[in-house]
């Protein structure tokens, strides 16, 4: 690639999150960077878009800043749409989302705003990657994973991603020297066992907090959960054709 | 099945929407019905869950009503979690979501709150179906599709759904007599070509409305778009293992 690549950066923790700052740091060495990210945390927003509300877009970087940045009042997916439709003059060569504060491995991919932004990029034909670190701490140590972010981004800039997919990359919470490498994985079967924490308002009205415990239901060495528990970076190719093609013949035997 | 089936009903247009009323009408002849649905419209919320805000749950049916109904301040997925974790004593035999006011065929499945509620049911091991009618009108004629809803629900109560899938059912906007039948389909490849409609507040600040045009990128007779355009009800089995298994060998050749 002779021309400097154009890289779109977004996330779901909001534009001020340390995770997106780490991602911008890596990307600005690889190409021209545009940041469009939510103006407030949007964790667990899934593939939500804003159609019943107005949207605001604000340029937050200074006029001569090395990286142009916009904040958006909507969701991660809204941010990607704003970048592609309203701001950029050509399709980016790469979309990166994250680095998320917390895991998006296994079933979390379904709830994740970080990954939905990447999926939106994929739908729009942009090679896209979501990055997440297994550390929910606002001050998580993103320095440790920067070399892996760079390696994966360079590979995608060179090769693209397989047709109809985006990459879901998760990092274990380890020092760089203790990370054993990168593994291509499948999504482990897992669930959240939820609890609702019931409380009362000062006025005596019941309300709830959604909480839960993550339960991994399988332990195959080809799963993302296994990789992460064993010190590897997990890379899962995620598709947005949600058809269960293998189930079609079975359903065709139904009496409908 | 000798025992009366237990049926959970939800949607994303909110508990007062005519679409969910039609669905309840059909289901109350098939089993014991619990309704838990958002207290306000939640279209296009995707698989969002509420973790940074409090949640309210209100019983809205009268004490001796035939059907017990709760409204929830959260998303469709929150509603399913409330029903399963907080209200029901046993796992339902069927979850139905809808009937959505508007299409959830092809790529819309990704954005849809209706389908995310069904997917959440699937993740929790409940045979689950999302129903949508290709008519955005609040006063759409749901009577026309009730016989098809009943037929599909009875089949799922008898047979379950294929492992790891939920069903995405879409109805064409036609009179019952003009609907040609039910077809098992795959998700058509399609995109939304978005536009942002830029306006100014009375105070002179720019804001946007997200709008767009649906573009079907393929016309195979095995797709949901083809079925709907040709007068059939489309049924797509949707999976929540989002791994692109076919892409794993290709990624394993990468230099990571």
From TrEMBL, chains A, B:
Any single GO molecular-function term of the entry would be:
5'-nucleotidase activity
What role does it play? Answer: Nucleotidase that shows phosphatase activity on nucleoside 5'-monophosphates.
Keyword Metal-binding listed? The answer is yes
Q: Any idea which UniProt keywords this protein has?
A: Cytoplasm, Hydrolase, Metal-binding, Nucleotide-binding
According to its UniProt record, which protein family does this protein belong to? Belongs to the SurE nucleotidase family.
Binding of a divalent metal cation, residues: 12-13, 43, 100
Major site of localization recorded for this protein: cytoplasm
InterPro entries according to UniProt: SurE, SurE-like_Pase/nucleotidase, SurE-like_sf
Q: What is this protein called?
A: 5'-nucleotidase SurE
- EC number(s) reported in the record: 3.1.3.5
What Gene Ontology terms describe where this protein resides (cellular component)? cytoplasm
**Catalytic activity, reaction form:** a ribonucleoside 5'-phosphate + H2O = a ribonucleoside + phosphate
Q: What class of enzyme is it?
A: hydrolase
Q: Which cofactors are reported in the record for this sequence?
A: Mg(2+); a divalent metal cation
Q: Where in the cell is it found?
A: Cytoplasm
Pfam families reported for this sequence: SurE
Location of the Survival protein SurE-like phosphatase/nucleotidase domain:
7-193
Q: Describe cofactor binding as the record notes it.
A: Binds 1 divalent metal cation per subunit.
Q: Which organism is it from?
A: Flavobacterium caeni
